[in-house]
Amino acid sequence: MTGLVTLVLLAGLVALTPVITALAGRASGWLIGAAYVAAAIAFIPATQAVLAGDTPEWALPWMPAFNVDLAFRIDGIGVVFTHIALLIGAAVLFYSTHYLDKGRNLSFYWLMVAFTFSMVALVLTNDLVVLFIAWELTSLASFMLIARSGSSGQAPSFRTLLITFVGGVLLLVAVGFIIAFTGTTNIVAALTDPFWAANPAATTAVALLVAIAAMTKSAQFPFHTWLPDAMAAATPVSAYLHAAAVVKAGIFLLIRFSPAFHTTPAWNGLLITAGLITTALGGWFALNQADLKKLMAYSTVSQLGLIVAAIGVGSELALAAAVFHVIAHALFKSGLFMMVGVVDHIGHTRMFGRIPQLFRVAPISFAVTIIGTASMAGIPPLLGFASKETVFMALRETPGAAALGWLALIAGAAASVLTFAYCAKIVFGSFVDGPEVPAEKLGHEDTVMLTFAALPILASVPLAFMLPTLEKLVVPAAAAALPGTDPHPHLALWHGISPELIASALIIAAGIVIILIRQRAWEFFTAATLPFNGADVIDVITRLLSRLGARATRLIGDERGAPHAAAIVGLMTVVSIGGLATVLADHELPAAQANLSRPIDFVLLGLIGFSVIAVCFSRSRMTATVALSAIGILATIQIMAIGAPDVTLTQLLVEAMTIIVIMLVLQKLPRTFWKYPKRMQIRRGVLAILAGIGVGGMTWAMAGRRERSDIAMWYLNEAPEISGGNNIVNVILVEFRALDTLGELTVLGMAGIAIVAVMSTVRDKYIDPPASEVPEMPRRPWIVLRPRGSMAHRAVSLAWPNVVAMQLMVRIVGPILAITSALIFWRGHNEPGGGFIAALVGSAIVGLLYMSTSKDRAIGPPRAPLFLIGGGMLVAVLTGIAGLIFAGSFLEPIHGYILGEHFSTSLIFDVGVYMAVVGLILVSFNLLGTSDSAFTPAGDDVLYLGEMHRDVVDHERTRERTDEMVHGELAGPMENMRGEPPTAEDYFREDSDHTRLSRSSRHIGSGTQMKERGE
């Protein structure tokens, strides 16, 4: 299928854009724009096939269980919108090479390409699910393109996302209903299903959902506010997304769904009414604007309203007129948006009254702007005149009484007077009526910017005289919108004397009068501005919703953990005790299995109970931590006694790592727990006892009273044959339940990323406060020592001599642990082990390295943890995709033999698990363990005049390490809280002259500190 080549080219371009921008920088627009042109050329054979009456199709099963295919079908609608997306996109990208600041501009080019790919996929797909996904991708891309404009684009981008999100939800509901009603995700089959004619109520409901969803993206009243708000984006973004692409997605949706709904009265009435209101309001608000770019935005709103009204009419002529005006609007409006950048470049402002007189210094720009605005105003013999005349003809076919058609025509013509007026304001306000400014204070006409801004406008001029040829493109689109029809719109510049021609003449006459009295007219419209705008309305709605949300969360909004824990534990206690009582009262429990208890169980129970009591009654955090560790170790012994080596290894290693992290965090906490009132302690104790009774009773009643389940026996009997592995636990985790494991892996990885994200929002002084502000500061022992410089003095006053032995030990133990980790990983499919346990063993090396350092220092390269977490998740997902492609199901393992040894892709999945676990441990150690010298014996803080003070040695602290995990080595902590990138001055690397530790070195004797691992 030739049209598929276009999609493949765009998908490849998405992947290659980072490389292109790295090599070409701002000039990447030439290469990417050329790729767009190549994609358009590759689409020509498909276009020719459509014009010949064919509809090329291609489909690949995607989710067979849900009958969802990656299906694409090229018809007249897809041809029109694909060429608009590619050709206008190419012109905008060429224009951008001189508009953008010098630099890589990766976010701009990457998001533009991603948007184009999503838009082309949207207009070519023949599957409802794919259509919805592509629809949402266009929303996300446009949101990010606005947001990348900096602080000025943040609020507008979120308001845009809010409105388009509403439309996305409505479209999702509509798609769900359509699939449920018709039983298919195929768009053509669903929209031509007999269900719609037989069920008018359901048809009306779905039609309204689709119509409103499309109106949110095509900026129709009352959802029009986001488009002017989005003008915070760069001019090339506005020219492409808001004139030729994203707003056209809403128009496309209406045309695409017309086969099912074009005769539905609610569809007709809503679109015609909303479209004409939008046309009038857009024109009025455009004349209110003092900013040229905002005026362009409202003019787009107005023109889109006219197209929506034509679609609402639903006749053959009306849909042909809508497609015709889509083409004309894409040409003149994209060019005019780019001309805004040209005017701004020359006059250094977009504000009316401040824009200098430019018609003398920029005559070509003046001429191009006149042509573009004349086409938009509907002045003959330009393309905009022909398309608007056709729309007027369509409005007279409004369903219902004949008077409604005349009323629609009058409303459209009246709104078009405002169109002529704002077109005049663009020309005179930008080039004629401004102050005279010396030429040396003005910019110059950039040849590249002017050329590609003028290109779509000038291209529309000859098209006005080639309407029979253009009709060959319009007719297939109208026929696709109304299957089974044979539209003949007869596009022409002259249809004889007609009501539409008279309306156009009256519009031009009224426009000339406005030009003659333009100063008074502009003053009137400026004074007629509303005291608020759409952004203000959205802000008010947002504040009201926020207040309602705040009131709704007061019941559960307590920041303390105790109320939440009490509610959860209390409910669990009621359910467990009540359920246990009900079961014992109404049913006789099955007999317990034999040999469930052994003497060692009672010994362990007593020890665990004692440890629990120690945790509950200890005032010291350290004592509570030791007792908690004892509970974990004793539970590990219990698991081992049952005979579960896999779980035993996991429990033991997790317990060890958890306790180490807790000990690191204790550095930042007071040494003792807060002493609560006795009454509160009694209440909590009673709740804890009842909870223990409830959970213990439920465990006693429901566990150990049945034989092995059927599924357990199936795993035991069948899993070795299916998977080739004898370790049932590991096989379940990485093969049969791999999707669950992937979910847990994702949670684990996101936990590490969340730690970094949270820490990066807190300033350094709040994470690691000055020494003098830390309560319960331990005092250093001041005892009589040998003179400074002696070994005895260093052994007590310095930390590094005391870790020499441990560092030498790590050199022996580290490789042993690494080999052990590799062996556990390798054997996991057949014997106790696997990626998770192996990762924990490997993480023990990290723990030993951390504890063998003489001062608080990060282990490993700064960015390694996040690379490991992200890389591990990526490896796991790619393994799943390989299963989908080569085995037919996501995460299904692929088995094979290499040198006679059985291998499975689940081994690669385990590599991802290994990487992510090690990454999380590194994040935990390197961030949670940091402190301002920690006031520990290894610290460098000193007691002076009764207060602790930071010594001259400055250590890496939590915020600095957090920033370095994202950006690499830095000179110190960053002060931002919103993710701003570091400046060049923030980067710094200091080289150390210290030597490495070896068996022959004499660091302790000489008193010279060695260079430690990682430094």
From TrEMBL:
InterPro entries assigned: CPA3_Na-H_Antiporter_A, MnhB, MrpA_C/MbhD, MrpA_C/MbhE, ND/Mrp_TM, Proton_antipo_N
Location of the region described as Disordered in the Swiss-Prot/TrEMBL record: 972-1015
NADH:quinone oxidoreductase/Mrp antiporter transmembrane domain residues: 126-397
Biased segments, Basic and acidic residues type: 986-996
Record domain MrpA C-terminal/MbhD: where: 607-671
Keyword RNA-binding: no
Domain Na+/H+ antiporter MnhB subunit-related protein: 806-922
Membrane topology: Multi-pass membrane protein
MrpA C-terminal/MbhE domain: residues covered: 683-763
Pfam families recorded: MbhD, MbhE, MnhB, Proton_antipo_M, Proton_antipo_N
Principal location: membrane
Domain NADH-Ubiquinone oxidoreductase (complex I) chain 5 N-terminal, chain residue ranges per copy: 63-103
UniProt keywords, alphabetically: Antiport, Cell membrane, Ion transport, Membrane, Transmembrane, Transmembrane helix, Transport
NCBIfam families for the chain: PRK12650.1 (NF009290)
PANTHER family for the chain: NA(+)/H(+) ANTIPORTER SUBUNIT (PTHR43373), NA(+)_H(+) ANTIPORTER SUBUNIT A (PTHR43373:SF1)
Protein name per UniProt: DUF4040 family protein
